[in-house]
Amino acid sequence: MKSRALFSMVTVGLALGSLLAVITVFSGCTGKVEAQENPVTRPEVPIEPGQTSRPKVYFTADISPAGLMAVYNALEQQPSGRVAVKITTGESPNSNHLRPDLIRGLVQSVNGTLVESNTAYGGRRASTAVHKETARAHGYTAIATVDILDENGSISLPVRGGSRLTENFVGAHFANYDYYIVLSHFKGHGMAGLGGAIKNISIGIASSEGKAWIHTAGRSRTSPWGGDQNAFLDSMAEAGKSVVDRLNGNILYINVMNRLSVDCDCNGNPAAPDMHDIGILSSLDPVALDQACVDLVYAAPDGRSLIRRMESLNGIRTIDHGADIGLGSKTYELIRL
After folding, report:
1. Which of 88, 165, 221, 247 is geometrically suited to a Cys-Cys bond with 159, CB 3.0 to 4.6 A?
2. d(CA 212, CA 229)
């Protein structure tokens, strides 16, 4: 695999008593980033064309219901109307999906409905009836109503500015909600390399046929198999942009970096994580949020396995393509809470 230079800017505000210390880290890596105990300042990454400021990404190391509420409140959003909270219900009790006890407070504070979509590959989430039973077994129906977005089929969203797709297929219930909170477990993935906010608004919100459509870059609505890898990765970013365009600002994103397995929550028997938990991050920009998570993995002293998974499948390409098509920005300001 060809090495690729990854450049990022991270600005971290640390409150130390009454003193605000601002540490600016500019990192450039080819293949990997070594963690630095005393980071040095490197040449500034320019603001991307059309940007007047860098999107904010909020971070806490407190992986708890209180920590989740802290990063949510930092965004200063006020969702109104019917609020959907997009989660992944997990394939089996062994999967690393976000547990109900962690998310209960946030979901109930916004009177949210937990939403998911059926899979395109079989398993315990391939049909609405079985998927709802899986959600019940995993404890989600005890904290909120669960809605399978494609229970009644699909609707089409236009893809603007894409090179792989011209439309995206999401569950017909997608249009029933006024605001989306995208609550993602950041981790590795056996096909996409990594899974975070962009994957959750593309593959995650896509209907079963939409998942096949994305995986094959618009070649099939019935089978997800046999597509080109880079075309699939680009298609995720393009499908995600169609969702963001339709919601017109009525969306926010939270990534939880715990149980950092190389495998996704669709895997019923994932590899055990071999790195430490990192924290919870939030943003109004899905590209910035996923890029910040990637940067934290590269900076971790024990992130080698997850880095290998991301690089082996070229997973960061989805983030790159998202920035190229205007889904978001790879440069950001990281604010520690």
Report:
1. 165
2. 13
Asked if residue 279 has pLDDT above 80, the reply is yes
Q: Is 50 domain-assigned?
A: no
**Per-residue pLDDT tens digits for 106-140:** 999 999 999 999 999 888 888 999 999 999 999 99
Q: What is the pLDDT of residue 264?
A: 85
Side-chain-side CA neighbours of 130 within 13 Å: the count stands at 11
- Domain CATH code at residue 261: 3.40.50
Domain count, the chain: 1
Contact (Cβ atoms closer than 8 angstroms) between residue 239 and residue 206: yes
Q: Which domain holds residue 139?
A: 59-330
Cβ 86 vs Cβ 195: under 8 Å: no
The span from the CA of 89 to the CA of 78, in Å, is 25
Element (H, E) at 19: strand 19-30
Task: Give residue 231's pLDDT.
Answer: 98
DSSP string, 111-161: T-EEEE---SS-STTSSHHHHHHHHHHTT-TTTS-EEETTTT-EEEEE--S
Model confidence at 305: pLDDT above 80: yes
- Cα 132 to Cα 71, 92, 97, 101, 179: the distances in Å are 29, 13, 15, 18, 22
- The predicted pLDDT at position 51 comes to 65
Residue 209 covered by a domain = yes
Which residues share a beta bridge with 182? 86, 253
Return left, alpha or beta for 313; rule: phi > 0 is left, psi -120 to 50 is alpha, else beta.
alpha
* Stated pTM of the model: 0.86
Rounded distance, CA 282 to CA 112, Å?
A: 18
The residue among 82 and 23 whose pLDDT is bigger is 82
Q: Are 198 and 290 within 8 A, CB to CB? A: yes
pLDDT higher than threshold 60 for residue 46? no
Buried b (16+ CB within 10 A) or exposed e, 225-241: eebeeebbbbbbbbbbb
Rounded to 5 degrees, φ, ψ at 324 are -65, -35
177 part of a folded domain: yes
Give a yes or no: residue 113 inside a domain: yes
